[in-house]
Amino acid sequence: MAISRHELVCALDTLLRPQDVQDYCPNGLQVEGADRIRKVITGVTASQALIDEAVRREADAILVHHGYFWKGEDPVITGMKGKRIRTLLANNINLIAYHLPVDIHASCGNNVQLGSLMGLSNLAPAKGVKPEGIIYTGECSEPVLASEFKARLENKLGRSVLHEGDAGDRLETFAWCTGGGQGYIEKAVAMGADAFITGEVSEQTIHVARELGIHFFAAGHHATERYGIKAVGEWLSSSFDITVDFIDIDNPA
């Protein structure tokens, strides 16, 4: 079975509501390909490796969290970007991307998915932070040692995690923002969270954590953002009679 490209994009727009957020890139269809969609490949980033895998699997569309045409980037279609787009066009593959809408969605979003993966309860968007859902909060049913929580993260994500704080402290309340969300650490402090989790770390983040007394975990940009687009793909598969496969292209960042 197959659906039209228009039907696919409209369904995703209805689910993710990109019109509700101001983003750093266009959300939705970025490169036009086949009119009829039978197979969709989902992944975190529209890298050449993901495109090549989509070609190998004879996909009609790629759905990603990190697509193209970011604000401030060189607009010319040359070099690496040129090769990626030529491969899409030559193989009639649609590229569909949603950035912030996939971070903040209430059921499929990166933040709520990561909270569930961490085994936290009372998951909720942080109040007073826009767009709503860019930071989530939650808690453990019982306080957990910081060292045990770090081990939990590493086990769930399959990678090493940077932790700043006393390993013997007990943590109960958490705030997090997947990906490159380290700049929100002071908002997490203002919320009274015991710990803040994100993907990346900057030099100043460690000083903020030490001086303001909050535990900080950097668990990887890619690793913390695998689960939103995967959940959106699973929603597509359950909503339409099409094949949807998630491909995880390893990235240690």
Features:
253 residues; alpha/beta; Udp-n-acetylmuramoylalanyl-d-glutamate--2,6- Diaminopimelate Ligase, Chain: A, domain 1; 2 domains; 6-stranded mixed beta sheet; 5-stranded mixed beta sheet; 36% helix
Brief account:
With 253 residues, the protein is α/β, with parallel strands linked by helices.
Please write out the topology.
Elements: E1 3-4, H1 5-16, E2 28-31, E3 36-37, E4 39-45, H2 48-56, E5 61-66, H3 79-90, E6 94-97, H4 100-104, H5 110-117, E7 121-125, E8 136-145, H6 146-157, E9 162-164, E10 170-177, H7 185-190, E11 195-198, H8 203-212, E12 215-218, H9 221-224, H10 227-239, E13 243-246
Parallel strand pairs: 4-5, 4-13, 5-6, 10-11, 11-12
Antiparallel strand pairs: 1-3, 2-6, 7-8, 8-10, 9-12
Helix pairs in contact: 2-3, 5-10
How does this model look, in words?
By secondary structure, the protein is of the alpha/beta class. It has two domains: 3-103 and 226-246, NIF3 (NGG1p interacting factor 3)-like (Udp-n-acetylmuramoylalanyl-d-glutamate--2,6- Diaminopimelate Ligase, Chain: A, domain 1, 3-Layer(aba) Sandwich); 105-224, Udp-n-acetylmuramoylalanyl-d-glutamate--2,6- Diaminopimelate Ligase, Chain: A, domain 1 (3-Layer(aba) Sandwich). The chain is 36% helix and 25% strand. The chain has helices at 5-16, 48-56, 79-90, 100-104, 110-117, 146-157, 185-190, 203-212, 221-224, 227-239, and strands spanning 3-4, 28-31, 36-37, 39-45, 61-66, 94-97, 121-125, 136-145, 162-164, 170-177, 195-198, 215-218, 243-246. The strands form three sheets. It has a six-stranded mixed β-sheet, sandwiched between helices. The protein has a five-stranded mixed β-sheet with strand order 2-6-5-4-13, with helices on both faces. A two-stranded antiparallel sheet has the order 1-3. Helix 2 packs parallel to helix 3 and helix 5 crosses helix 10. The longest helix is centred in the C-terminal third of the chain and has 13 residues, at 227-239. The radius of gyration is 19 Å and the shape is elongated. The model has no long low-confidence stretch (mean pLDDT 98).
